[in-house]
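Before a colleague's protein record goes any further, I have to sign it off. Alongside the sequence sits a line of tokens, each denoting a local backbone shape. I want your independent view on whether this chain really folds as the tokens say. Where you disagree with what is written, explain briefly why. This is what I was given:
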Amino acid sequence: MGIKTFIEQKLDYKDILVMGHVVCGYPSFDDNISALEIMEDCGVDLVELQFPFSEPSADGPLFVKANEMSIKSGTTVDKCFDFMSKVTSQFSFKVLMMGYFNTVFQMGEREFLQRLKFSGGDGYIIPDLPIEEAVNLHSMSKEFDLDPIILMTQTTSEERLKKLGRSCSGMVYAVARKGVTGSKTIMDDSIESLINRCRKYTDVPLGVGFGISNRADLDFLRGKADVAIIGTAALKAWEDSKQAGYRQFFESLQLS
């Protein structure tokens, strides 16, 4: 089942879905499993597994640190794919690869897609790859029934949104504010305007990320977006209080 169908079916009985995020190998793969178990227990629907990279240009300081520490501990792309296979066989949520194009380039596009499919992934988010340079990768993705997740932002022109909309598959990732991940986003009319603009150009489900951090944010997005994407706030809860704080954070969202 593709991401679009999965989200649409879940929306029959949930008014908003949640996508979580872990950096593979940070603090360790065992800790990743503990985090994913908590997310599954608390009703998370999709998860990004971030393959660490030395220059994560879309990430804020907390995730930059996580990427650096994971690489220093010996995390490799092969280990990430092996971990993805373990995750997709153990958990019920949909799994996407999140990373940077250098990982794909070094491996080769077809091999990357083959490995992703073999590991049970359903799609990928590569924020530093413009659609003009992704034509071949996106075309091959259809062969493997994998969804490339496109980012749309508040600063994107209408003409650009229209072009991005033609490339959308699975879901859209609407970036709630300028800059990198990590800062709190104020939920206001600008977010609703972004959602409405994105919906004009695509009919795939729409997720909102960058700065989503509490139940009030989810409540704001209900009836507007389909998926709330949560990353930094959850990682901060882990950094502050390990498993106990992580579970408390997700339980506070009251997802089930």
Notes: The first strand starts at residue 17 and ends at 23. Residues 232-252 form the longest helix (21 residues). The mean pLDDT is 92. Strands lie at 17-23, 46-50, 94-98, 123-125, 147-148, 150-153, 172-175, 206-209, 227-229.
